[in-house]
Amino acid sequence: MEHLFSYGTLRFPRVQRETFGAELPTAPDALVGWRLGVLRITDAAVLALSGAAEHPILERTDDPADRVEGAVLELTPAQLAAADRYEVDDYVRVAVVLESGVTAWVYAAG
């Protein structure tokens, strides 16, 4: 299984069902040393699925006072590939260590 930290639309049950074919097991977690910015979405498919033109985007600060709340999703490699297709090119998938100590993928500013 893979772990993916979501702080945005991939936490939504509807987005998970449409993107992965099912709702995924999740657990609350946080990412320290990062903050949220805003990304304007223009991809029509993502707009239709998420219902939002502005999505959050992670920005690394390395400041321990910065913290982003979210959820860890457990998914298969095929579901992770589906998440890659869902995210627009402004996001880059990187590995991080979450507050819980879990290593997870996350989509962040490139």
How would you describe the overall organization of this protein?
The protein has 110 residues and is α+β, with helices and mostly antiparallel strands. It has a single domain, classed as Gamma-glutamyl cyclotransferase-like (Hypothetical upf0131 protein ytfp, Roll), CATH 3.10.490.10. A hairpin with a 5-residue loop joins strand 6 and strand 7. The model has no long low-confidence stretch (mean pLDDT 91).
Keywords:
Hypothetical upf0131 protein ytfp, 7 strands, globular, five-stranded mixed sheet, two-stranded antiparallel sheet, single chain, alpha+beta, 110 residues
Quick overview of this protein structure:
This protein has helices at 13-20, 44-50, 77-86; strands at residues 2-6, 26-32, 34-40, 54-60, 67-75, 91-97, 103-109. The protein is α+β, with helices and mostly antiparallel strands.
Rg is 13 Å
Helix share, percent: 10-25%
End-to-end gap: 25 Å
Q: Provide the CATH top-level class.
A: Alpha Beta
> Helix tally?
3
Order of helices and strands: EHEEHEEHEE
Query: Strand percentage, roughly?
Result: 35-45%
Q: Spans with pLDDT under 50 lasting ≥5 residues?
A: none
User: Can you identify the CATH superfamily?
Assistant: Gamma-glutamyl cyclotransferase-like
Structural class: alpha+beta
What is the oligomeric state here?
Answer: single chain
Number of strands: 7
Tell the overall outline. Answer: globular
How many separate domains?
1
Strand arrangement across the biggest beta sheet: 2-5-1-7-6
- What is the overall pLDDT average? 91
**CATH overall fold name:** Hypothetical upf0131 protein ytfp
Main pleated-sheet profile: 5 strands, mixed
CATH architecture type? Roll
